[in-house]
Design a protein that fits this description.
Length: 202
């Protein structure tokens, strides 16, 4: 019962803020409970996002994104971790008149995570953990020119972005715990001078 309540509480208190018109292509990554463990891994992660575009209060279009990411972690030392992601994205923009698609490899992300607090009991059931991370998104993925109607659903943005991440986990009891993640993505400009909005997640 406690597990169910904890999951519902996490879903209710999760919030993400971004400009629907220009912040939907590249969201913030979550490293979740993985950060509190010390091991290397390689895996796949799926992500689905749905946005509605409004102008002057009138709904203009819907954007759907499905992303499949290759992600990994390398544990350099007990206090330093490296996370990486290589996304493949499928985007659709639907309006009353047409539906357009854009897909391909997106911009890869790299994050260095520094562990500030890592206290566990003898069986790792009760623990106190905090970490802070800094990273970058490289403009390597498939992008569209600024005049192209598919610019905002293209897998790549063409800009260098800065990533900041804070993760805190506190578990005072064996079957109960608290986790909070705060992340910020500061978007740069692509070669045409187009800059998408910053994204914050907490």
């Amino acid at each position: 019962m406690k597990t169910t309540i904890s999951i519902i509480a996490c879903l209710l208190f999760f919030s993400s803020k971004a400009c629907d018109m220009c912040g939907g292509v590249s969201g913030n990554a979550s490293i979740g409970l993985f950060a509190a463990n010390q091991f290397h891994y390689l895996g796949l992660r799926s992500n689905f996002r749905d946005y509605s575009l409004y102008m002057h209060g009138i709904r203009q279009a819907d954007q759907l994104f499905f992303t499949q990411e290759i992600n990994f972690r390398y544990q350099f030392t007990n206090r330093i971790q490296c996370y990486g992601e290589i996304p493949y994205q499928y985007g659709i923009e639907k309006t009353d008149l047409k539906s357009e698609k854009s897909f391909g490899f997106g911009d890869p992300n790299l994050l260095l995570n520094f562990i500030l607090i890592n206290k566990k009991d003898s069986i790792s059931q009760r623990f106190h953990f905090a970490s802070i991370g800094i990273g970058v998104k490289a403009p390597i993925g498939k992008m569209r020119s600024g005049s192209n109607s598919l610019t905002y659903i293209a897998p790549g943005t063409g800009s260098w972005d800065s990533k900041f991440h804070f993760n805190y986990i506190f578990s005072p009891k064996t079957n109960f715990g608290f986790q909070n993640e705060i992340s910020l993505s500061l978007k740069g400009s692509n070669p045409m001078g187009l800059s998408r909005s910053n994204v914050s997640t907490f």
